[in-house]
């Protein structure tokens, strides 16, 4: 909804020129300058400025992070697909209602029989590697899966911190704490350069009679 970027262009720019400048700046990224810094006059100086290239991709990156965060949960759900049934049946087996308790016990027995049959089928596997894996007891598998999922959660959290660090171009892994300290201290984006609202963009314009485009 609306325009992702609004450029303040020279007065001689007509409306199509303004739209072209806005589209170009949105695609090629903009850069941030402190109030006491001068606008770069050539390509060498422009390479030394701090570019802001995360506004265009923030939605995609956040969606990707959400999907990555869901992976450990998916691994746990797939690896322990019978465990919720067992826990639910065991919980319902303690209900005073006799009829409901009998149904829960029957479901619990059926699930245990299915696990037993599955284990028996796995023991007939000829592959030695699969046989070693299948010989692991179910309770040991659940325990190993639990620790593996915990490691995935920790790795996911640490990895996303470093992902955001490189994504926003920060030199510190504590950029979140630094940003919070800046907010508490009342330091705005104009002095910190964190998520700036006003940035600069260089657009080369070729005019009639000029050999080199003007900046």
Automatic annotation (TrEMBL):
Q: Does the keyword Membrane apply?
A: yes
Pfam families on file:
Innexin
Q: Name one GO biological process term.
A: monoatomic ion transmembrane transport
Q: What GO cellular-component annotations does this UniProt entry give?
A: gap junction; plasma membrane
Q: Report the subcellular localization.
A: Cell membrane
Its transmembrane ranges are: 54-76, 140-163
Task: Report how it sits in the membrane.
Answer: Multi-pass membrane protein
* UniProt-listed InterPro entries: Innexin
Source domain of life is: Eukaryota
Q: What is its main location?
A: membrane
Q: Which family does the UniProt entry place this protein in?
A: Belongs to the pannexin family.
In terms of PANTHER family, this protein maps to: INNEXIN, INNEXIN UNC-9
Q: Tell me, in a sentence or two, what this protein's role is.
A: Structural component of the gap junctions.
Q: What is this protein called?
A: Innexin
Per the UniProt record, the source organism is Rodentolepis nana
């Amino acid at each position: 909804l609306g325009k992702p970027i609004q450029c303040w262009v020279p007065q001689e720019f007509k409306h199509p020129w303004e739209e072209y400048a806005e589209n170009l700046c949105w695609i090629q990224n903009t850069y941030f300058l402190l109030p006491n810094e001068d606008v770069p006059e050539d390509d060498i100086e422009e390479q030394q400025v701090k570019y802001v290239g995360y506004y265009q991709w923030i939605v995609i990156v956040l969606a990707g992070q959400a999907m990555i965060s869901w992976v450990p949960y998916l691994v746990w759900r797939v690896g322990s697909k019978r465990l919720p049934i067992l826990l639910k049946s065991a919980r319902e087996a303690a209900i005073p209602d006799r009829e409901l308790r009998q149904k829960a016990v029957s479901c619990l027995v059926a699930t245990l029989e299915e696990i037993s049959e599955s284990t028996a089928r796995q023991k007939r596997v000829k592959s030695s590697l699969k046989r070693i894996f299948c010989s692991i007891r179910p309770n040991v598998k659940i325990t190993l899966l639990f620790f593996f999922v915990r490691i995935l959660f920790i790795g996911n959290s640490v990895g996303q911190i470093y992902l955001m660090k490189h994504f926003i171009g920060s030199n510190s892994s504590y950029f979140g704490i630094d940003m919070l300290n800046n907010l508490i201290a009342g330091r705005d984006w104009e002095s910190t350069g964190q998520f700036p609202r006003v940035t600069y963009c260089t657009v080369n314009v070729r005019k009639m009679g000029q050999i080199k485009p003007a900046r």
